[in-house]
Amino acid sequence: MPAAERPDPAELPLPPLVDHHCHGVVRSELDSAAFEAFLTESDAPAALGTTFFDSQLGFAVRRWCPPLLGLEPHCPPAHYLARRRELGVREVTRRLLTASGIGAFLVDTGLPGDLTTPRELATASGGTAHEIVRLEHLAERTADTALTADDFLTGLADGVREAARTAAGFKSVAAYRYGLDFAPEPPAPAAVHTAAERWLAHRSDDPGAAARVTDPVLLRHLLWSAAHTGLPLQLHTGFGDPDLRLDRCDPLALTDFIRAVRPTGCTLILLHGYPYHRGAGYLAAVFPHVYADVGLALAHTGARAGAILAEMLELAPFGKVLFSTDAYGLPELYVVGARLFQEALAALVNGWVAEGAWSRRDAHRVAALLAADNARRVYGLGVASGRDT
Amino acid sequence: MPAAERPDPAELPLPPLVDHHCHGVVRSELDSAAFEAFLTESDAPAALGTTFFDSQLGFAVRRWCPPLLGLEPHCPPAHYLARRRELGVREVTRRLLTASGIGAFLVDTGLPGDLTTPRELATASGGTAHEIVRLEHLAERTADTALTADDFLTGLADGVREAARTAAGFKSVAAYRYGLDFAPEPPAPAAVHTAAERWLAHRSDDPGAAARVTDPVLLRHLLWSAAHTGLPLQLHTGFGDPDLRLDRCDPLALTDFIRAVRPTGCTLILLHGYPYHRGAGYLAAVFPHVYADVGLALAHTGARAGAILAEMLELAPFGKVLFSTDAYGLPELYVVGARLFQEALAALVNGWVAEGAWSRRDAHRVAALLAADNARRVYGLGVASGRDT
Amino acid sequence: MPAAERPDPAELPLPPLVDHHCHGVVRSELDSAAFEAFLTESDAPAALGTTFFDSQLGFAVRRWCPPLLGLEPHCPPAHYLARRRELGVREVTRRLLTASGIGAFLVDTGLPGDLTTPRELATASGGTAHEIVRLEHLAERTADTALTADDFLTGLADGVREAARTAAGFKSVAAYRYGLDFAPEPPAPAAVHTAAERWLAHRSDDPGAAARVTDPVLLRHLLWSAAHTGLPLQLHTGFGDPDLRLDRCDPLALTDFIRAVRPTGCTLILLHGYPYHRGAGYLAAVFPHVYADVGLALAHTGARAGAILAEMLELAPFGKVLFSTDAYGLPELYVVGARLFQEALAALVNGWVAEGAWSRRDAHRVAALLAADNARRVYGLGVASGRDT
Fold it and tell me: Which Pfam family is one of those matched by this entry (chains A, B, C) (predicted)?
């Protein structure tokens, strides 16, 4: 489409975004290899003769970020990284976060690395921040100091209860640790106790390999513990790093768990979903307590983000779709996630308005639902103070 | 695309549509909640703070139907529902059905509710109507009066034989009742007898819960009974209400059944398929007796209907794709299903003609195949009398 | 889009294509039915009242090929076939191959039929050709003359070693013969021996049915034998003929095998993938030794080829995607596969450049990677001599 005819994204008024699923950014300077490693879900360097900069995500970073540091879009990666070092990580983080258009951050604090805290993100961006507690991380921290299974389970129950007082929600990575094809019902207390004993014993035998919780009985115990708090529960689904078997992360594998957990009143938010996001949209359509996002998928598919968002907006009711960046490590990923979402959403809904399929009034209202209002309602965040600015 | 450049759907001449899979509409007035419930496959009210009107289907209804009742497109739902009550359900049904462009209706009569009969649909629309017999409903009606398994099986065989004399085809909802991953071969008579005895016994013990046939042996017996009549057999695949596990409704799960049933000469039509419709297209491409439709998926995805139809038209040969609305309850769903199909098809094929990928002559011919001619050939309906009007 | 605004594919400079996966073409004249049979993966004639010419592939052949034989695009199939017979298969093959824009052919020589050899393809096209050895075919030829399991296994090891000296790579059709859900680890030598004995015994009992290798132990032995040679290994994934169960050909089913084979240093290339190509793109993104192509899917989806290619270019890094035609039998399929790829790629990347999502320089560089450079690097082909022409 010639530039003159493209709908101007500015024509789609949006409130400050609520990024309902993200992580901290690295506090220290990154060399080229470390920067590139954050552009992929792979745990290995790029294949010989290739680079992760040559990807939709790499091109999206090169499109949106150089101008925020005073460079031309699509300048060579080496120029960008030199300019980044010149400005320093603190200044780069400040510039990128304030330019992201994100007004509120819900931060999963369970990832390793020297990362900014939610409070630091809020300060650097001028927005607000809330914590999302990663269940497996809570379990692992509790296990670090527990001497017995009883200790562990009591400590975990205390930890969940305490988190529920301050956090905006919980998150599970059962997808990575086992897969989503776990038994749907809550595990029996005796089975949980046995599994906890076994895990703690393995941990003392082999602290490296057994540090992570992978037992499906314990993973289910975590999910049900969170469900009973009444806080929203985020579930990783779909693609991510090569720890997982993607074909065991289809959100539809959660169907029986979704049914089983419904009486608790717990709200479930299915993250990412790609390439199974249409299935996530279906679940959001037929189960009142299920919501869906397309966070990670937008950033990683770059110029194709609009196609993914469109697929999510097929079956999912518009009151059920949430925005996130899933940014991790690089402040660039906030900018890219937000810009791709805004631009993709504007192109889609402005196109539908142009065809007569949607009214302009509805388009603006639905855009605000996706950008912020659905997340504010689901997480009980209240209306943004910056909403009228 | 600016309006001036949009291909005019009127440029795509189409015969009166044959809707090869639909249901009756509700005879009585509907309040707002009851109307909204027909806009979703969910069995629960919309989540707090949301409405099913905020969905692609809701927006499509608001686009196409208000003008047929003398209102502006996209007027608020409350205005539309008030106008609907003002005109009365009889007049609304008449107006919407006659405006739908559908000339022949193949009606699955196995759904509950106070619904119009095929004859009433024909009268209200000025078209023709034929019956599709839902196998599970036939089995349940037969079981209602059967005293023994022998009674039941004899009655069922009679019912299938009788239906085959008058109906245009059969339909199975084995997807909902069990899943499509059933054993492919016909069940042994002794196994069928045992399963029938067990089901009838459960029915007398617990008439509510056991009323529905869910035993895979009986479901397979129904399928094979229908296959031997030589009539086309519709199979629900893909998304639908939350009774089903969507991941057990992938049409590819039918592959071995498709192979097994091939020698009977039975034609299979895979309904809906979403989000597995590309797999349905593959099956239609490689098995001569397999056809595919994208009925329900077009209505429920609204502004995205063109994307779904395009995906179906990737592998499926053009002689193998059928149109349907799967309309149920609301006459609005006939209008929406038909308009979305016509508009999506016109945009796709006119676009391909503009690119040079298709010739205009082929485009018009293929459009007629999908709109009516394939269904007329498969169900033996003869050429429409209204074809030249 | 009006013709005047369409990006001109000529604006995307491409090197001569490297077709890294194709087959020979039939040497003899084909009647209409035989020609049509090459337009489908079905093993049966088209359903009554339909023709395989009425498909995206059929329309693509009619778009691109008639002008190369002096006819109008989209002329009736009968005219095209008459002209084809008039010119003779030799001249038709020469015209179509030289017009295809393909400079190098990697030819899987394991398909039956009176097909041109790689050398003949090279001669007819003016390009170069290399052999890809199909593992199952190698095993079957070896079994034809082996008297004992020891004979067979020694002969197979020799055959693999010899092939590795001259071939550009290996190919496995384990997808067709068993499915991709095989055990990931190498089979134990004793198990291989037992399986070989069993297969040879069946072969002498029933030479017809048992001629093909389908035992998963033997199929795994073939894969691991090839992996240890260090040559690239092509794996059929996704759709193909109705021998396979498509739902057992999801490339994600290979995840554990991909992990297991990684230490050998073997490069894996996942062919086709449709409709699971997004999963193939994910695997190419997270595993350094995995590559993906969308060969067969482009030709068979015709006017929709751009949509498939776009989906592959979501997660797959641009250094990991390879072009192929998977042409088999008809020289037309080289033309169609190449044209659809070139046009789809040009439309996509020119569109992204127009939106500002990609730079023009990157677009041209990435296009060359996909068209030829990735394949040259992976198969060690060196730079094309015709590159500067």
Answer: Amidohydro_2
Cα C21 from Cα C169, distance rounded (Å)? 10
Chains that touch B (3 or more CB pairs under 8 A): A, C
Q: Residue C97: what are its φ and ψ, rounded to 5°?
A: -65, -40
Q: At CB < 8 Å, which residues of chain B contact A? A: 1-3, 6, 40-47, 49-52, 54-56, 59-60, 62-63, 73-74, 239, 241-242, 245-247, 274-275, 300-304, 307-308
Least Cα separation, residue A379 to chain B (angstroms): 13
pLDDT in tens, A288-324: 999 999 888 899 999 999 999 999 999 999 999 999 9
Per the domain annotation, does C268 fall within a domain? Answer: yes
Contacts of B60 (CB under 8 A, 6+ apart): A357, B299, B302, B303, B336, B339, B340
**In this structure, is residue B386 part of a structural domain?**
no
Q: Which residues of A touch B242 (CB under 8 A)?
A: 259, 286-287
CA distance B21 to chain C (A): 21
Encoded tokens for B32: 């707002």
Q: Choose the closest CB to B317 out of C44, C50, C246.
A: C50
C1 pLDDT above the threshold of 50: no
Q: Is residue A223 located within the same domain as residue A312? A: yes
- What is the domain range of residue C56? 30-37+51-87
Q: Are residues C69 and C139 in the same domain?
A: no
pLDDT tens digits, one per residue of C63-83? 999 999 999 999 999 999 999
- Rounded to a whole number of angstroms, the distance from the CA of A377 to the nearest CA of chain C is 32
Looking at the structure, do residues A240 and A315 belong to the same domain, yes or no? yes
Residue A331 falls inside a structural domain: yes
Residue of B nearest to C301 (CA): B314
Q: Is residue B98 part of a domain?
A: yes
pLDDT per position as a tens digit, B184-222: 999 999 999 999 999 999 998 887 778 999 999 999 999
* pTM of the predicted model over 0.90: yes
Distance from CA of C365 to the nearest CA of A (A): 10
A63 lies in the same domain as A130: no
Place of tokens 């680890």: C185
Question: Do residues C238 and C297 touch, judged by C-beta distance below 8 A?
Answer: yes
